[in-house]
Amino acid sequence: MKTIFQKIIDREIPTKIAHEDDRCIAIHDVAPQAPVHVLVIPKQPIARVGAATPADAAALGHLLLTAATVARQLGLAESGFRLVINNGRDGGETVPHLHVHLLGGRPLSWPPG
């Protein structure tokens, strides 16, 4: 069964795309937790970061570099931004397809909720 992210990648569900290349897609979150909230999603299905293997290293590196690029494109480089990866139920994971939350546009407190 396809995850919602795979359906977005396959264009079965429309979304607002912030960035796309051959290895990942970055979309605006439909329930943003900050003025800027983008999800950076690898097209290669990896359930979660805890399930990644050494063979996924290039995909993981590309995901983080793309998140930084998108942050710059959205004007967050100077003020700062946060990257969040949820893993497992207690980590807040709701979709079993690895993705990075890019949050910014306001001061973000610590510790997070």
What does this protein structure show overall?
The mean pLDDT is about 95. This protein is α+β, with helices and mostly antiparallel strands and about 110 residues long. The protein contains two helices and five strands. It is globular and about 35 Å long. It starts with a helix and ends in a 9-residue tail after the last strand.
Strand content bin: 15-25%
Q: Main β-sheet, in a few words?
A: 5 strands, antiparallel
Strand order of the largest sheet: 1-2-3-5-4
Element order, helices and strands?
HEEEHEE
List the helices and strands and how they pair.
Layout: H1 4-9, E1 17-20, E2 24-28, E3 36-42, H2 57-73, E4 81-84, E5 100-104
Antiparallel strand pairs: 1-2, 2-3, 3-5, 4-5
Any key phrases for this structure?
2 helices; globular; 113 residues; alpha+beta; HIT family, subunit A; five-stranded antiparallel sheet
Please summarize what this structure is.
This protein is α+β, with helices and mostly antiparallel strands.
